[in-house]
Amino acid sequence: MTTWLITGCSTGLGRAYAQAALERGHNVVVTARDATTVQDLADAYPTTSIARSLDVTDEKQVTAAVAAADDRFGGVDVLVNNAGYGYRAAVEEGEDAAVRQLFETHVFGAVRTIKAVLPGMRARRSGTIVNISSIGARLSPEGSGYYSAVKAAVEALTLSLRKEVAPLGITAMVVEPGGFRTDFAGRSLAQAAVPIADYADTAGKRRKEHDTAHGTQPGDPAKAAAALLDVVESGRAPYMLLLGNDASNAFRASLDALRDDIDTWEAVSRSTDFD
Predict the structure, then answer these.
(1) Active site residues
(2) What pLDDT shows up at residue 210?
(3) Domain range spanning residue 37?
(4) Which helix (H) or strand (E) holds 190?
(5) Apex CA 149: angle with CA 146 and CA 152, to 5°?
(6) pLDDT at position 185, please?
(7) pLDDT of residue 33
(8) Residue 255 lies in a domain
(9) For the chain, what is the domain count?
(10) Which of 75, 146, 167, 183 would staple 187 via disulfide (CB 3.0–4.6 Å)?
(11) How confident is the model at residue 180 (pLDDT cuts 50, 70, 90)?
(12) What CATH number corresponds to the domain at position 202?
C-alpha cells in the first residue's frame, strides 16, 4: 500500500486516477479546489482516503495538503499533478492575464507540489512524481499555442527532475493523454474572449462554439487510470507514457516529420563548428 496525492480530482482523469488507486487499496489524498466535490470518494473509503481543498496556485493550501498526507498516512509516495484546464486562442489573441494564470496553474502549480513532497521523498529515498501533460505538447495545434507551451514546459522540467532525483531512489515521469471522454473540451476549456477574423480558418476552427469533439473522444478514463496505476506499480515507470491510440499515432507521426526535417537540413546543422 502506498499513499497518493492527486490534484484536480473533481472530474475527468483526476477523479478516475483517484478512484482506481482507492479500489486497489492505496491511501489517497483526494483534492480539488472545492473539497466538497470529492467528499463522496473520501466517504466511500473512510480509512484510506481524505478529501482536501487544494488550489495549486495557493502555497498555503499546497503545504496543508502535504501535511495532511504526512499526518494521516506518513507521507506522500506518489504525487500526481493533474490539476489544470485548457485554453484556446491564437497567439495574437491570447489575453495576458489569462496566459499568466495558465502558466501559474500548470507550471508553477506543479513546481509547488513537487517542492512540497520532495523533502519527504528524499528522506525515505523513494517516491514517484507523475506530471500529466498532453499530446498537445508534441502537436501544438492551431489555437493551442499557450496550452501546448505550458505542457512542453512541464515535460522539460520533468526530464531534468527525473535525472536529478533518480540517484535518490525517486522517479519522475510524464503522461501524455490523447482525447479522453471528460469535461476537458467542455467545462474545463477556456478561450480568448475576442477572436480575430484573420485566424478564423486556423485557430478559429477550434473555438468551443465550433468544436464537435466534446463527448465523442475515443479514450476511456477508467482504462487510462488503470494503465497509469499499472505503470507506477511496476517500479519501471518510463520518462513518458502515452495514453490512447490517437496519442501514440500522433506522436509517431510527429517524430517522423521531425526526423525528416533533421535529415533535410543536416548538412547545414553540421556546418557551423570551427574548422
Answers:
(1) 133, 147, 151
(2) 74
(3) 3-247
(4) strand 189-191
(5) 155
(6) 57
(7) 96
(8) no
(9) 1
(10) 183
(11) confident
(12) 3.40.50.720
Question: Could you tell me if residue 13 is left (phi over 0), alpha (psi between -120 and 50 degrees) or otherwise beta?
Answer: alpha
Asked whether residue 257 is assigned to any structural domain, the reply reads no
Q: Cell numbers of 184, please?
A: 476537458
pLDDT surpasses 80 at 186:
no
Residue 269 forms part of a structural domain = no
Residue 156 in grid coordinates: 522539460
Sign of CA dihedral 248, 251, 256, 262: negative
Express each pLDDT in 60-78 by its tens digit. Answer: 999 999 999 999 999 999 9
Please answer whether residues 8 and 183 qualify as being in contact, where contact means their C-beta atoms are separated by less than 8 angstroms. no
123: its cell numbers: 528522506
259 contacts: CB under 8 Å, gap ≥ 6? none
Nearest Cα residue to 147 out of 211, 191, 213, 198: 191
All cell numbers assigned to 264: 533535410
Report residue 177 as a C-alpha cell: 493523454
**Whole-number Å distance between alpha carbons of 76 and 58:** 19
Which sign, positive or negative, has the C-alpha torsion 220, 185, 159, 78?
Answer: negative
Q: Is residue 203 part of a domain?
A: yes
**First-last CA distance in the chain:** 59
3-state secondary structure of 49: strand
Task: Give 50's strand partners.
Answer: 29
CB 5 within 8 A of CB 83: no
pTM over 0.85: yes
